[in-house]
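Support case: magnesium ion complex. Customer-provided input:
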Amino acid sequence: MTYESRAQAIRKIIEREPIPVDPPSNFEDIWEEYVFNLSKMKQCLPKAVFKSLQRTIEAGEKLDDSIADTVASAMKNWALTKGASYYAQVFYPMTNATAEKHDGFISTQSDGTAIAEFSGNLLVQGEPDGSSFPNGGIRSTSEARGYTAWDVTSPAYLMETDNGITLCIPTVFVSWTGKPLDKKTPLLRSVAAMNKSAKRVLGLLGNSNIAPVNSSCGAEQEYFLVDEHFANLRPDLLLAGRTLFGKPAAKGQEFDDHYFGAIPERVQVFMQDVEQKMYRLGIPAKTRHNEVAPAQFEIAPIFEAANVASDHQQLTMTLLRQTAKKHGFICLLHEKPFAGINGSGKHVNWSVSNSTQGNLLDPGDSPHQNLQFLIFCAAVIRGVHEYGTLMRAVIAHAGNDHRLGANEAPPAIMSVYLGSQVEELFNNIARGELNDQYSQSGKMKLGVETLPELTKDAGDRNRTSPFAFTGNRFEFRAVGSSQSVSGPLIALNTILADSLTTIGDLLEAQLNEGKQTEDAVVAVIQQIMSKHGAVIFGGDGYSQEWQDEAQKRGLANLRTTADALSVLNQQKTIDLFEKNDVLSSEDLESRFEVYAEQYILSIEMEVKLVIDIAKTVVYPAAIKHLDNIATTVTSLEGMGVNLNRDHINAVAYLTNSLTDNIDNLQSAIAKSNFENTKEHMQYLATTICPLMQDVRADVDALEAEIADNLWPLPTYQEMLFIK
Ligand code: ADP
Ligand code: MG
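Agent response - structure generated as follows:
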């Protein structure tokens, strides 16, 4: 890394030829081209087999083992006609990544020939070597067997890469003892738990025909694009996904001219390419736009069933990264790639619905639907109040710590924003101020007839809330951009399941006293509001006043991952997940260990990078700069000309400070005797992170002093503005 390589990168970008891409196809023509969807199954499966499979997919019945061979064979034949020669069991380990094990269809025969083979056994139960996936101690390495089984509710698809086409089968991943080793298994279980308690409550509300209740998710993904020529000169971007150094550009985001501005042409071509791939894979990409920060963008799909949405979200992240490469970009999904400008989040829009009662978080336009909405919304309110710290824990990881509470993203305090209208209604009910809401017949109308006029426009959105009601769903805005949405969805569904159980009990008690449904609902909401109303907050979540107020209300403020992760091990969390059959205490313990390890590893990697770059790239540049000036100063003095030495003193001071701070960091990171994982995390959060920041402060100050033609690292200005 030298100034020359930096200058060359800029030249290459400016002289870049546009990447040839096919003109975009009509999305109707390519929609689900690469998906083995129901209509393709119908075409190629015997009727009875198809019907049986359809029941599994649509009604959640167990897959009939006897049809597996037929389905596998049809799937294989379809994949072969599309040019696939490999298949992959795709699973979702406890990292935020997607994992795949590729196998060929090839099978050699006794007569010396080879044929393509894919049996039902392989479809339903694959056996990837799970030994290298994090498992938090659930399996010892000698028992490295992990099994994958097709999640029938998420269709198989074809993935096209430079290496060819692969048939991909979304699967659950469990240990040989049946312990979940992935994020999909608990997600499916959380939906089942929510379904059970939601149906009970719907029954208590007087419904008799109640279809299965599923949770839905539409995840907005923010990301940055940086030209690969710059990224290749930034080991911090390549390895850590964020800049560990960099002086702010003269122009940041204060002009707000990037947000919803025209999308740069090269980026537009990239986006189109991503969307075409998404359509082929049946991912309903819907919106794209610039985000607040320069070089930051967003893509959002139409919402889908949580399980499918989660698989599709993982695929979207993969496609963004892969396609960016093809277009000469690096796609940064990190929560905070650049200091001083906005980071990236992933807004998880979430609701619950079924085909008979509709969206249960939609106020709807009949009084009955409004009652339903009030009860489900009350369940969410109780859930966030009871388990806000769990919601904080499931979005905890090193990257997100840079965002939460940094006045650009919601604070680490979990609260609920309802919007003024709904908030007022809940407050009125809580205070029993519903007298004017009685109609002439004396029947309570609950004020609910006014609800359909809810403002759904963006003006009523509170961008500072971590969890906001947005008209017919909640938007969990504190999720990090690089995170799997499964964790948050598992938590939300399980919390709701639990709340609906409690609310079901309360409602049942009221009904047993002989109350009318409306009166029973009002009584329950009053109980919920008096106990949990403190979690509702409509003000400015970025303000200091809220931090103080939240403390008074008893809401936790878990600032770092080190503070938040241990919530997973608390008895209250264990009880919640065990009661709802989602995860056992052993599972939670192992998840804690895995996430803690990821936190530790990622901070330690950053420390190595900081030391390395500071020592081998920045320090030599500073010395060279000092040397140049010193030589000039000396020769000028020989001529009797004296230069002011303030600058040289300042650079010398910073350079010395830099070496001191590198030394401090280096000796601090050598500590290894920790009582336990928790203590280790705390040490990194409270001692190591500030020391890294000290090194950064010196490096960024040096960047402002050292001659530009000696500075080796691409600057913020270059990375953010040259495309
Ligand atoms: P905004 O940026 O204003 O929040 P977007 O249109 O970018 O809005 O994203 C809204 C997301 O919410 C979309 O993915 C949309 O499909 C999703 N969404 C809408 N209704 C629901 C619902 N009932 N359940 C889950 N997600 C939903
Ligand atoms: Mg949004």
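The first strand starts at residue 84 and ends at 91.

Case will auto-close in a few days if no follow-up is received.
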